[in-house]
Structures are given as structure tokens and as C-alpha cells.
């Protein structure tokens, strides 16, 4: 049953050829007029009005035009396949020689199915130019084709490695479920058909599904589910990698000598670059106070490190150009000791067994080495800050990658 729509064009051509060659035009017109003579397209197509009209549906997806993350909407192109029985459009196939006819949408009854989660306005499916296929036993096939813009709640937490679940819900607006029951085909294992689907360059379809409203619910509707996964390569190359590389450049502020005069301008440039990338990400994400993007949090952390870098560099430059006769405080001496201790670790293992003359020379060198002035304080601040910021950078990247992997694990 579900493959009928896939070969709909072929069936249409076959039916038209049969209608032309099997019967005359006059007989075709006469039968059509007799069927519509006392027909009303405002009455449900059942002789017993206490009975339910069952509308079997499936969705044929042609393409995903756009997933508007900022507007939180899904734009797809496709057609809805609707199938029901009209008891007022039945005739004797053997006597007339006609097994199939076509009627304009406005001439016969059609269910008032609308896209429930439309982001614009409710509008009727199809149009006046649509023909509906009707077989001799009263079964009607309707394939309204259009662009559907449905609401989709976007979870921005793992952008750009995110997955989204979007629903396309069709609803009978005027009738209750006991009058018009919009449901799925019972034997359909693929309610969202994609035989003519065109791949999207940004989103992959992980799986599809569908569900009908439960029996306890008076509203009659069906929901088609699309589970989408973003292709992250574009964002990795144009967003993630530049941000990570900027984080590396942020460390180089402490490598530039204080006498070069470029320390503050370099730090401010890197900080403003982070601000630009944060603005770019903000423009691509919806306004959401409930969830925060990991990439956005990472950028805010990098900007915080940038502020810390600017503050440290400002005090460091002030200390570097202090007058030599000012006494170096205990705190700054402690920073110098930490720096020289760490540097000493790099030279550990060197033999201390030397002659008395060599020992006297070494002792005098150490006395010179442990003279603490403001230049030594400035150099120590650079050294300690560089390795401290490097630890923060590595931790931030490790946590970011771990969280992303846990989401897809």
C-alpha cells in the first residue's frame, strides 16, 4: 500500500491511457457528473455520520532546505500522502469500464489537515489546481506537495557537534478523533519515505519515526520525527581551530620581552579577536537562557584568561620600569624563587663534585644569580604566568573534548 505513492506518476499515466482507450469521453463526463450531482464537499464522506473517517498518512521527504537555529524552525520540502475512503464516490467498474477518475480538490471532500507546529499561519494543504485520484471502490489518494516550515526546539549545548530532534505534526483542525481520525498506515515500517531525498550539506538524518495521537486523546494528529545530526567540518575549520590557535597566541604575550613595547597591544588584539568570535557564535545561536553552548562557554573562559593576561601584563610592565633603588618586597622575591626553582629543575642531575677552586667560582656565580631586582621580577612573572596559563589552556581543551565525546558516547 505504501509503495503506491512512489509509482504514482506511472499509475496516473496508465489510468489516463485506460480511460481514453477503454471508454469514450462522453461516458467519462457522464459518470463524473452523476457522481457529483448530489455530492457535497462539506459533509464527511460516510453514509452513517456516526462512523469515523480514517485518514491514513505518510510523509515523503524530498529535501531539508534549512534548519534555522536562530529562528528555531525546520524547513523541509515534501508531500503528505493521505489515503481514505469516500463512500459517495463509488461506481460499477464492470458496467462503466472505468476503474479510476480524477477530481479537482475543490470539488470533493478533503480532510482539513494543517501543519500544527507551523511557524507562520495555518493554511490549507494543496490548492485548487490539485487533482485527487479516486478508484471505483471509493478510495481517494491525495498528495499535497509544499514547503513546510515547522517549529523545532534547538538544543545548543553541543554546537557544532549537536543533534536535533524535530517534529512535523499534522492535525485535523475542525474534527474530533471520532469524526476524522488522522492516523498512520498499520503495515508501514517507514512512515517517512525518502526515495527521492536530496542530501543536505549541513545535516545528516540519523533516523526517522512517526507516532499517532493515543486513543485517550480527542485531537486527531500524526507526528513525523526527524533525528538530525550536524556535519561539523565547516565549523571546526572556520571556528573551533581558529579559537584554539588564538588561545595558543594568548600564551605568547608572556614570551614577548617587556622592553619590546608590544606586550599590551598584542594582548589587546588577541582579546578583541576572542570577542569577535564570540559575536559570530552568538549570531548563529538562538537566544536561550536555559542552556548554554559549550563553545560559547569555552570562548568566555578564553576571554577571562585574556583579561587576566592583560591585567598581569599591565602590572608586570609597571614593575619592570620601577626605579632600581626601590626595595623588592617579599612577595616578589617569592615569585623569583619559584621561577628559579622551576628553572633549576630543568638543570637537575648536573654534578656538584668539583674542585675547591671551581667551588669558589660557582659560589660567587650563585651570589650573582640570586641578586633580585625588578628586571628579575618581571622575567619571573612572565615565566610563571606562561606555564600557569598553559596549564589552564590544556585543561580547558581537555574538558571541552571530553564533554563533546561524552555526548556522542
Describe the structure.
This protein has 409 residues and is an alpha+beta fold. The chain is built from nine helices and twelve strands. It has helices spanning 8-22, 25-36, 93-96, 233-251, 263-284, 294-320, 330-346, 356-369, 374-408, and strands spanning 53-68, 73-85, 100-104, 113-115, 131-135, 139-142, 145-151, 163-172, 180-184, 192-193, 203-212, 221-230. Strands 1, 2, 3, 5, 6, 7, 9 and 10 form an eight-stranded mixed sheet that branches. It has a four-stranded antiparallel sheet with strand order 4-8-12-11, with no helix packed on it. A hairpin with a 4-residue loop joins strand 1 (53-68) and strand 2. The longest helix has 35 residues, at 374-408. It starts with 7 loop residues before the first helix and ends with a helix.
Features:
single chain, 409 residues, alpha+beta, eight-stranded mixed beta sheet, four-stranded antiparallel beta sheet, 12 strands, rod-shaped, disordered N terminus
Strand content: 15-25%
Major sheet attributes: 8 strands, mixed
**Category from helices, strands and their pairing:** alpha+beta
Helix and strand sequence: HHEEHEEEEEEEEEEHHHHHH
Q: Please state the average pLDDT score.
A: 84
Radius of gyration: 37 Å
Note the gap between the termini.
39 Å
Q: What level of helicity do the residues show?
A: 40-55%
**Which regions have little confidence, pLDDT < 50, spanning 5+ residues?**
1-21, 349-358, 360-368
Number of helices: 9
Number of strands: 12
The outline comes out as rod-shaped
Amino acid at each position: 500500500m505504501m509503495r503506491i505513492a512512489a509509482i504514482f506518476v506511472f499509475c496516473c499515466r496508465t489510468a489516463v491511457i485506460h480511460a481514453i482507450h477503454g471508454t469514450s469521453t462522453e461516458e467519462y463526463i457522464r459518470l463524473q457528473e452523476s457522481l457529483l450531482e448530489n455530492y457535497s464537499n462539506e459533509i464527511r464522506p460516510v453514509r452513517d455520520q456516526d462512523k469515523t473517517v480514517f485518514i491514513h498518512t505518510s510523509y515523503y521527504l524530498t529535501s531539508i532546505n534549512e534548519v534555522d537555529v536562530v529562528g528555531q524552525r525546520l524547513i523541509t520540502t515534501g508531500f503528505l500522502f493521505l489515503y481514505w475512503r469516500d463512500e459517495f464516490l463509488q461506481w460499477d467498474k464492470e458496467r462503466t469500464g472505468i476503474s479510476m477518475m480524477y477530481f479537482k480538490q475543490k470539488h470533493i471532500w478533503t480532510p482539513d489537515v494543517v501543519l500544527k507546529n507551523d511557524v507562520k499561519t495555518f493554511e490549507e494543504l494543496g490548492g485548487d489546481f490539485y487533482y485527487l485520484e479516486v478508484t471505483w471502490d471509493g478510495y481517494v489518494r491525495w498528495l499535497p506537495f509544499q514547503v513546510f516550515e515547522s517549529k523545532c526546539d534547538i538544543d545548543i549545548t553541543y554546537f557544532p557537534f549537536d543533534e536535533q530532534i524535530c517534529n512535523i505534526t499534522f492535525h485535523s483542525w475542525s474534527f474530533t478523533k471520532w469524526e476524522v481520525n488522522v492516523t498512520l498506515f498499520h503495515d508501514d515500517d517507514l512512515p517517512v519515505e525518502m526515495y527521492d531525498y536530496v542530501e543536505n550539506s549541513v545535516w545528516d538524518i540519523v533516523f526517522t519515526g512517526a507516532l499517532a495521537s493515543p486513543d485517550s486523546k480527542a485531537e486527531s494528529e500524526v507526528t513525523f520525527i526527524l533525528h538530525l545530526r550536524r556535519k561539523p567540518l565547516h565549523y571546526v575549520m572556520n571556528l573551533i581551530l581558529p579559537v584554539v590557535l588564538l588561545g595558543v597566541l594568548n600564551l605568547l604575550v608572556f614570551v614577548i620581552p617587556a622592553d619590546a613595547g608590544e606586550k599590551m597591544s598584542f594582548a589587546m588584539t588577541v582579546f578583541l579577536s576572542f570577542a569577535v568570535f564570540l559575536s559570530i557564535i552568538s549570531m548563529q545561536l538562538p537566544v536561550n537562557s536555559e542552556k548554554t553552548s559549550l563553545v560559547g562557554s569555552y570562548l568566555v573562559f578564553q576571554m577571562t584568561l585574556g583579561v587576566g593576561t592583560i591585567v598581569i601584563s599591565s602590572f608586570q610592565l609597571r614593575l619592570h620600569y620601577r626605579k632600581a633603588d626601590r626595595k623588592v618586597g617579599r612577595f616578589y622575591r617569592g615569585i623569583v624563587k619559584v621561577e628559579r626553582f622551576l628553572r633549576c629543575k630543568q638543570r637537575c642531575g648536573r654534578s656538584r663534585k668539583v674542585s675547591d677552586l671551581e667551588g669558589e667560582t660557582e659560589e660567587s656565580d650563585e651570589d650573582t644569580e640570586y641578586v633580585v631586582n625588578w628586571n628579575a621580577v618581571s622575567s619571573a612573572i612572565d615565566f610563571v604566568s606562561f606555564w600557569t596559563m598553559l596549564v589552564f589552556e590544556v585543561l580547558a581543551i581537555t574538558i571541552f573534548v571530553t564533554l563533546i565525546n561524552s555526548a556522542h558516547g
